[in-house]
Amino acid sequence: MRTQSLFGPTVLALLVIAGASGAAADDCHHDNRVKGTILGAIAGGVIGGAVSHGSGGAVVGGVILGGLAGNVIAGDVDCEDRPYAYRTYRQSFDGDVGRRYDWDHRGHHGYIVSTREYWREGRRCRDFMVVTYRRSDENRHYGTACRYRDGDWRVV
């Protein structure tokens, strides 16, 4: 079992960038890890810049961490599985805290549990754990997402 604490938020950042709809599946090819690295780096840079109010060091750090996280996550969830996983992630954030939300597609599967809900800077936030199973390996990711005025959940 592998455990990463920074990778869960990048899942959501990738979801926001790629879109929670079938658009993520339409973009899939055999180069999952390359695209995951690129999207993760973009998401990490955006998040690092937003959190630090434009600090160059935070942007660079976000790009590096986001790229690494995106590479790992892209290997955890196949392109064909992403619409199932992402739909389930959204259901969890809008659903009950503590409830397990499962997804399954052709033998690949996983789940998400929102573990805590609270308010941060006027936004409803949730901590969560995502677990994916791929080739009998269990991968756990932890993160935090907050809901913005437009209704989207974003990484904080």
Structure description:
- By secondary structure, this protein is an alpha+beta fold.
- The protein has one domain.
- It has five helices and six strands; from the N terminus they run E-H-H-H-H-H-E-E-E-E-E.
- Strands 1, 2, 3, 4, 5 and 6 form a six-stranded mixed sheet that branches.
- A hairpin with a 2-residue loop joins strand 4 and strand 5.
- Helix 1 (7-18) crosses helix 3 (32-52) and helix 1 packs across helix 4 (56-76).
- It is globular and about 45 Å long.
- The model is unreliable at 3-26 (pLDDT under 50).
Fold topology:
Blueprint: E1 2-4, H1 7-18, H2 23-26, H3 32-52, H4 56-76, H5 82-94, E2 100-105, E3 108-120, E4 123-134, E5 137-147, E6 153-155
In short:
This protein has 156 residues and is α+β, with helices and mostly antiparallel strands.
The helix fraction, in percent, is: 40-55%
- Overall pLDDT metric: 72
> Quick one: overall form?
globular
Largest sheet: 6 strands, mixed
Tell me the fraction of residues in β-strands, as a range: 25-35%
Q: State the end-to-end distance.
A: 25 Å
Number of DSSP-assigned strands: 6
User: Which segments are poorly predicted (pLDDT under 50) over 5 or more consecutive residues?
Assistant: 3-26
- Distinct helical segment count: 5
Q: Give the number of domains.
A: 1
Q: What Rg do the Cα atoms give?
A: 15 Å
Content-based structural category: alpha+beta
Q: Note the run of SSEs as H and E.
A: EHHHHHEEEEE
Distinctive features:
about 160 residues, alpha+beta, 5 helices, about 30% strand
